[in-house]
Amino acid sequence: MSFEKRGPMPLTYDAVCYPGSPLRFRGPCAAMSAPFVLCLGGSETFGRFIHAPYAAQLATKLPCHVVNMGVMNAGLDVLMHDPAITRATQGAAAVVLQITGAQNLSNRLYRVHPRRNDRFVKTTAMLRTIYRDVDFTEFHFTRHLLTHLHDRSPERFGIVAAELQIAWMARMRSFLGRINVPVHLLWLARRHPEDAVTTYGLGPDPLFVTPNMLADVAGMAASLSIISPGDPNVALSTRGMFFGIREEAAARALPGPDLHDRAANALCALLS
What we know:
The protein is of the alpha/beta class and 272 residues long.
């Protein structure tokens, strides 16, 4: 992935590979010997800009191995279809599944890259019909695409958001239905599920996931932990995060060390 090829960085992720997967996961390499806890999710679970993400902290708190298979910018597509992740879910004693947004998964409107789910690959006839006035060749990332569509026509964008929510719900139900061990859902984000959508842009991740959607899938899981800032009006701090030049905006969009600490403590109580 591109973030691993930029030369010296303030934080070393010790990226590792697991047999059968082309993906590079957060290191160090963890043994998948029973019993082990498997942590799945996106950039938050991977621990971008974080020295000790919640999965690493769990490894020091629990009497078993903890495997971090968070994927940068992941949507449900890569988590459901990567061979190494699939094998890991079959051998784990429990799974922590971080809630990811609805934008980075293929749906009836557009397709995403099978491994880099934040990459927009192509549109479908349905989206081209809804937005006949848009040239889709200029877009490479899902957030860029969706921001443009939202700004072009908030009314028509309602159709897009509804389709993404339908796809997310179907994918989550399918994923949870195939995992035969307890799944502990984790909302780890800079916003609370109940926070109002911002008046500009798309807002913070997880995009398009509403409290009702969360409650629906939580019924299929062993638990749901909500980890977010206590006050949405407090300025988002990057204290304790490690990032390079021009990455401050990206760091502010992700949970900081304090939220990872809270996530580790909450999950430890559930998994012990």
